[in-house]
């Protein structure tokens, strides 16, 4: 239980949760201990249900670029997640020092693609990819964190065209991801795909998020983030991203492809599915199998 852990500094927080660097007593290994308050007021019960769905998602996912859930336990008022402690902080804080060089953005983006594809193979939508939720390891890799918005596609009677088998371990597997829908608005404004605001979206919305992440890594700014939800919605539906001259052509190409408003035209969402992303020139230097096994070393120090 909670008394088994010695909690140190707080390293993150949310509306109903706090994350602490912690150590189990009589252990020297640091972990991340996330304490989520379980709301008992009727109007907030949905938040508690969301917490338990997050636990189910975390328990079902095992991937080198997603923060693993070690185990969970419950107290009278909290659900506690014990997760790996990622010492490099998050991408949002890192980008406050300036944009990444091209090779670093490619390497991080490739890992994000692999992790997102894995979730999709499990019929899970991430729904909240943003720099705040991308953690950086000290050896140059990334871990996606915070599955609080993630949901199984088949929940609540969502339309399904059949699950892609998660037993297929090849990185280039995957059917076109536009046929399955979720009907709730979620995520963070400035990152939501335009179809999310229409409550008619599927896996393609996650690939939109990847496009935003790439341009943000390369410029340290999100060109589609407005001052509020309404402004961000309008930007997502009307604004074409303009690229600074230092952004390489293949980066402009993949971002433009991932930010197509027509989901059927969005990169990774057509007949070839995610293969279109894997084979894009932006990733020409990526050995996908080597990266998945973490044999590919970061092209930076």
- How many β-strands, per DSSP? 9
Count of spatially separate domains: 2
The CATH superfamily of the largest domain is identified as Transferase(Phosphotransferase) domain 1
Would you state the CATH class of the largest domain? Mainly Alpha
Structural class: alpha+beta
Terminal CA distance: 39 Å
CATH topology of the largest domain: Transferase(Phosphotransferase), domain 1
Helix content: 25-40%
Into which percentage range does the β-strand content fall? 15-25%
What features would you highlight for this structure?
globular; Transferase(Phosphotransferase), domain 1; 9 helices; alpha+beta; 5-stranded antiparallel beta sheet; STKc_AGC; 301 residues; Kinase-like_dom_sf; 2 domains; Phosphorylase Kinase, domain 1; two-stranded antiparallel ribbon
List the topology elements:
Elements: E1 5-13, E2 17-24, E3 30-37, H1 45-60, E4 69-74, E5 78-84, H2 91-95, H3 102-121, E6 124-125, E7 134-136, E8 142-144, E9 151-152, H4 194-197, H5 204-219, H6 229-238, H7 249-258, H8 275-278, H9 288-292
Antiparallel strand pairs: 1-2, 2-3, 3-5, 4-5, 6-9, 7-8
Helix pairs in contact: 3-5, 5-7
Describe what this molecule looks like in 3D.
The protein has 301 residues and is an alpha+beta fold. The chain has two domains: 2-84, Phosphorylase Kinase, domain 1; 91-292, Transferase(Phosphotransferase), domain 1 (Orthogonal Bundle). It has nine helices and nine strands. It has helices spanning 45-60, 91-95, 102-121, 194-197, 204-219, 229-238, 249-258, 275-278, 288-292; strands spanning 5-13, 17-24, 30-37, 69-74, 78-84, 124-125, 134-136, 142-144, 151-152. The strands form three sheets. It has a five-stranded antiparallel beta sheet with strand order 1-2-3-5-4, with helices on one face. The protein has a two-stranded antiparallel sheet with strand order 6-9. A hairpin with a 5-residue loop joins strand 7 (134-136) and strand 8 (142-144). Helix 3 packs antiparallel against helix 5 (204-219) and helix 5 (204-219) runs antiparallel to helix 7 (249-258). The radius of gyration is 19 Å and the shape is globular. 40% of the residues are buried. Mean pLDDT is 85; it is low at 155-170 and 172-182. This is Protein kinase domain-containing protein. Residues 5-283 form the Protein kinase domain. InterPro entries: AGC-kinase_C, Kinase-like_dom_sf, Prot_kinase_dom, Ser/Thr_kinase_AS, STKc_AGC. GO terms for molecular function: ATP binding; protein serine/threonine kinase activity.
């Amino acid at each position: 239980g909670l008394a088994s852990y010695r909690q140190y500094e707080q390293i993150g927080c949310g509306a109903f949760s706090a994350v602490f660097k912690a150590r189990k007593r009589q252990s020297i290994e640091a972990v991340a201990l996330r304490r989520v308050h379980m709301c008992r007021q009727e109007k907030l019960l949905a938040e508690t249900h969301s917490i338990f769905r997050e636990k189910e998602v975390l328990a079902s996912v095992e991937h080198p670029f997603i923060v693993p859930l070690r185990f969970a336990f419950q107290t009278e008022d909290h659900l506690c997640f014990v997760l790996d402690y990622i010492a490099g902080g998050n991408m949002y804080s890192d980008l406050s020092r300036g944009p990444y060089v091209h090779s670093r953005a490619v390497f991080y983006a490739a890992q994000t693609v692999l992790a997102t594809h894995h979730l999709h193979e499990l019929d899970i939508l991430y729904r909240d990819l943003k720099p705040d939720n991308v953690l950086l390891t000290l050896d140059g890799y990334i871990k996606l964190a915070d599955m609080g918005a993630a949901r199984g596609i088949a929940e609540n009677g969502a339309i399904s065209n059949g699950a892609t088998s998660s037993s297929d371990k090849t990185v280039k597997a995957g059917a076109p991801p536009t046929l399955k829908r979720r009907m709730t608005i979620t995520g963070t404004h400035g990152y939501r795909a335009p179809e999310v605001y229409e409550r008619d979206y599927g896996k393609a919305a996650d690939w939109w998020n990847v496009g935003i992440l790439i341009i943000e890594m390369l410029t340290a700014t999100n060109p589609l983030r407005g001052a509020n939800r309404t402004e961000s919605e309008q930007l997502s539906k009307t604004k074409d991203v303009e690229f600074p001259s230092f952004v390489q052509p293949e980066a402009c190409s993949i971002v433009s492809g991932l930010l197509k408003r027509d989901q059927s035209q969005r990169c990774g969402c057509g007949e070839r599915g995610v293969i279109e992303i894997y084979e894009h020139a932006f990733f020409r230097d990526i050995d996908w199998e080597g990266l998945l096994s973490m044999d590919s070393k970061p092209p930076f120090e």
